[in-house]
Amino acid sequence: MSISTKFLRALTFGVAAAGLLAAGPASAKVEGDTIILGSAISFTGKYSTNGIHAKNGYNLGVKRVNEMGGVMVGGKAYKLKIIYYDDESTPLRTAQLAERLIKQDGIKFLLGPYSSATTKAMAPITEKYKIPMVEAEGASRSLFTQGYKYLFCVISTSEQYLASSIALAAEIAKKNGKKPSSVRVAMAFENDPFSLDVRAGVMDDLKKFGMKAVIDDKLPRDLSDMSATLTKVKALKPDLLLISGHSKGAVTAARQIKEMKIKTPMIAMTHCESAKIIKKFGDSTNGYLCPTQWAETLNYSGAAFGTAGDYDKLFKATYDGYKNVPYQAAQASAAVLVWKDAFERAQSFDTEKLRDALAATNMKTFYGGIKFSKAGNNIAKPMVLRQIQNGKLNVVAPSKWASHKVDWPRK
Fold first, then answer.
1. Where in the chain are the domains?
2. Is 216:198 a contact under the CB 8 Å cutoff?
3. 245 vs 221, 252, 260, CA distance in Å?
4. Per-residue DSSP letters for 75-120?
5. Which CATH code for domain 3-158+297-371?
6. Measured between alpha carbons, how far is residue 4 from residues 17, 24, 28, 51, 108 in Å?
7. Is 129 exposed, middle or buried (0-12, 13-18, 19+ CB in 10 A)?
8. For 347-380, b where at least 16 C-beta lie within 10 A, e where not — what string?
9. Digit-coded pLDDT (tens) for 237-283
10. Main-chain phi, psi angles of 218, to 5 degrees
């Protein structure tokens, strides 16, 4: 089966099939009153869970923009549509589909794929053709050290994900009359660009507080078994266990921590919400610390969706089966809003004028502030830590954003 037949998706909320689209003008993919965006994203493979969350966020962003009257350029209102292709969670496929979107489908405005690995595969393509991309799911800080001029990311970079848990452990140690340097840390990180960047941020903070890593395991990308690492955790009894391995890694960790009855006082891991570990493993997940780009309790607001809480309610009303709205969905919706803002400030479909407008972005949204550094990463929004408390995710750190006190030690 060819790429064109296997991966072309015509989805809800005004998503157009590429085969139905004629070639647009050289400066834009615009047909009549419709602006066409494109994305190669993961609907199958290891990233599919989060890829679908991101797709839902993109679609809700498009739906909301269109309901508000669309995008105003030159005194005319334009609707948004998205072409999707499934990249099968494979970076090589992402690169191939980026070429297809740009060269065959004539797309000039791109939304990013899911994951740092696939975004790393796509960025050189968009850079080569000078096509702006607003991405919401590739957090690796190494994406923003390459000198890319057409890549813009709405999220905080990956080195920030678990670093705040180190500061929290230091704070708890002081309250208990101990030195932060006494905290013993165990680390288990998937050997992929995102998780290794998470580890780099953790290592920086360990040095800051003089802490020691008693376990520092790099795990295979198909993270289906962590028993060897958890056996060491049981024997060495660290104070804090840190885990990063996307949704599959979070599910594996939560399952085996429960099965092996690991009693570490503090556990922090990425992708708690998107992996739905509360639903899958119940009370055994209480006390887990989960880094998040966004939470519905934060006092963020913007014109399109209102407050963070308003977005949370709308998303749950739109899509069934979500007890918690994954931040992957919220940041995807924010990326769509960035495109609307850039079109309207540029008052043009010229890709160079749009690139300059994106670089000058400075906006407030339900997702938080969005302002890009010269490297293209968002410098206007922090990460926060949520803790699973009685089956709910509550913000506990940093204290400025906390809605609840941290439960320690983990029950």
1. 3-158+297-371, 160-293+384-401
2. no
3. 8, 9, 19
4. TEEEEEEEEEEE-TT-HHHHHHHHHIIIIIS---SEE--SSHHHHH
5. 3.40.50.2300
6. 10, 19, 22, 19, 19
7. middle
8. ebbebebbbbbbbebebebbbbbbebeebbbbeb
9. 999 999 999 889 999 999 999 999 999 999 999 999 888 999 999 99
10. -100, 125
DSSP assignment of 296-317 equals: TTS--EETTTEEHHHHHHHHHH
Assigned token pair, 363: 């906006």
pLDDT tens-digit readout, 108-129: 999 999 999 999 999 999 999 9
The answer to whether 3-158+297-371 and 160-293+384-401 have equal CATH topology is: yes
What are the structure tokens assigned to 99, written together? 């070429």
Considering just the CA atoms, what is the radius of gyration of the chain in Å?
A: 21
d(CA 125, CA 131): 8
- pLDDT at residue 221, as a whole number: 79
Q: Report the greatest alpha carbon distance in the chain.
A: 69
- Beta carbons of 250 and 267 less than 8 angstroms apart: no
Whole-number average pLDDT of the chain: 92
Residue 140 neighbours by CB under 8 Å, 6+ apart: 116, 119, 120, 157, 158, 193, 194, 197
As a whole number of angstroms, the distance between CA 48 and CA 52 comes to: 6
User: Where do we find the tokens 């990425």?
Assistant: 270
> Are the beta carbons of 42 and 85 closer than 8 angstroms?
no
CATH T-level assignment (fold) for domain 160-293+384-401: Rossmann fold (3.40.50)
Query: Do 329 and 316 contact (CB within 8 A), yes or no?
Result: no
Q: How far apart are CA 101 and CA 107, in angstroms?
A: 6
The DSSP code sequence of 234-255 is HHH--SEEEEE-HHHHHHHHHH
Backbone torsions φ then ψ of 284, nearest 5 degrees: -65, -15
